[in-house]
Amino acid sequence: MDANELLRQYGAGERIFSGSNLSWSNLSGSNLSGSNLRGSNLRGSDLSESDLSESNLRWSDLSGSNLRGSDLSESDLRGSDLSWSNLSGSNLRWSDLSGSNLRGSNLRGSNLPSPGMILLAQWGEVSDSLCIELMRYDAANHPDPSSFDRWAETGSCPYEDCPVQRSVNFTQRRNLWSPGPGRPAYELMVQLIREKCADSDYHHAEGEDKSD
Hints:
Blueprint (H helix, E strand, L loop, with lengths): L2 H9 L103 H5 L8 H13 L6 H6 L32 H12 L16
Helix pairs in contact: 3-5
């Protein structure tokens, strides 16, 4: 299915396009709100200024895509690949980014969901200093923070039999673990975006010129 056929079917009332191959397609300015594109290949596609609100994009490949100014509010982006995508000026409010890959993406001027949701994206390896802070945050939100001390001594994963899920997704390193207070989710979100994303407003200190 090409972009024209997708738009034709959408205009006729069809909403289920899961598994579609639309890589490098031009869908800029399109209205695809409420559509099911689960598991679709949208790699390198142009979706700028498009309406994808309330859409199912779970497990979709959006890597390297142009989503500038797009509306992704209330969309399901769980497990999606948004690496190196242009999300500048996009609306991600109330979207589910759990397990998604935002590494290398451009978030300048975008409207984001809650800091806690950003922490649930899949961030992989981080710097030593940030790894320590994220582990402390994870421990602070665990029913038994002392389980991290046992884990550091070659114990089992603190979340193995835990009734709640992890608070942040990244590669933990037990050799760096040291107890301490957890920092606010917002501060950790800013650090992650600065370290792992290509560009955003958060790369600049408050009051600093953002025009560069």
